[in-house]
Design brief:
Elements (H helix, E strand, L loop, with lengths): L1 E6 L3 H14 L4 E5 L10 H6 L3 E5 L7 E5 L3 E6 L11 E8 L2 E9 L9 H23 L3 E6 L23 H12 L2 E3 L13 E2 L11 E2 L2 E6 L6 E6 L15 E5 L1
Helix pairs in contact: 3-4
The structure holds one DNA strand of 15 nucleotides.
Protein name: Exodeoxyribonuclease-3
GO molecular function: DNA binding; double-stranded DNA 3'-5' DNA exonuclease activity; endonuclease activity; metal ion binding
Organism: Diaphorobacter nitroreducens
DNA sequence: ATGGTCGCCCCGCGA
């Protein structure tokens, strides 16, 4: 089976591109981030017509996440339990596979703007809360996949300019330590299980011809639990949609599970 | 010479 993640930067604008991508890439499930719309405006009918069940957690103007799945979704959780948050950043659900239940956690991690700002402090607190919740979530659901826009470039090779951007947002020691903490829970970065092209990125700034110059970051990730790791057969970033007219600034990432 | 990001929803903010 295949599971994907894609920050689409407004579902209203990007719906036709999401539907076209799903038609060309009929993944079993996908986590979407930055819907930028309220639940009342979520296009359930369009996704149902495309063959997907959907659960969403929307918000006006900012944030918003959803999971689409070929098979029904159950035990839906919205945001981190016990962590008061006005921003809609997390949705988790269980889907049933022939191999057993699979827990899919889809997150739009906090951006954090810049070290030293209030937004950065909020990012670190959010990352702590996520880590603590995921520890219990993993104990309850051994077959777990964590997907999303992590807003962290885990290593220097995940940035087009690790020297010039050292200690700036997405690159700080604190953010990278939090990424390592997630791995420490028993999660594996599926992308790095395989040989990948150099300078593989999942996000490119709209400004200054970022994509054309491949000035990007790898900040969209798929992490798999220890139980799932042996079944991972591939993981790739699909740059194609970034070449579309009116693209999202992020590309989808896809993992294949045997 | 001008404009050189996008999406939100109305204007400057967040990414």
């Amino acid at each position: 089976m295949q599971i994907a993640t894609w920050n689409i930067n407004s579902l209203s604008v990007r719906l036709p591109q999401v539907l076209a991508w799903l038609e060309a890439n009929p993944v079993d499930a996908i986590g979407l981030q930055e819907l930028k719309l309220v639940d009342e405006k979520f296009p359930h009918d369009a996704f149902e017509a495309a063959g997907y069940h959907a659960v969403c957690f929307g918000q006006k103007t900012y944030n918003g996440v959803a999971i689409l799945s070929r098979t029904p979704l159950r035990d839906v959780v919205r945001n981190i339990p016990g962590h008061g948050d006005e921003q809609a950043r997390v949705i988790a659900a269980t889907l049933d596979t022939p191999e057993g239940p699979l827990r899919l956690v889809n997150c739009y991690f906090v951006n954090g703007q810049a070290p030293g700002t209030e937004k950065f402090s909020y990012k670190l607190l959010w990352l702590e809360a996520l880590r603590d919740w995921l520890r219990t979530e993993l104990a309850a659901h051994p077959r777990l996949v964590l997907v999303g826009d992590f807003n962290v470039a885990p290593e220097d090779r995940d940035s087009f300019d690790p020297v010039g951007l050292k200690d700036t947002i997405h690159h700080t020691v604190e953010e990278r330590q939090h990424f390592q903490d997630l791995l420490g829970l028993g999660l594996t970065d599926a992308f790095r299980l395989f040989d990948q092209p150099e300078k593989s990125y999942s996000w490119w700034d709209y400004r200054m011809l970022g994509f054309q110059k491949n000035r990007g970051l790898r900040i969209d990730h798929i992490l798999v639990s220890t139980a799932l790791r042996p079944s991972v057969t591939a993981c790739r970033i699909d740059r194609a949609p970034r070449k579309n007219p009116q693209p999202s600034d992020h590309a989808p990432v896809v993992v294949s599970l045997g």
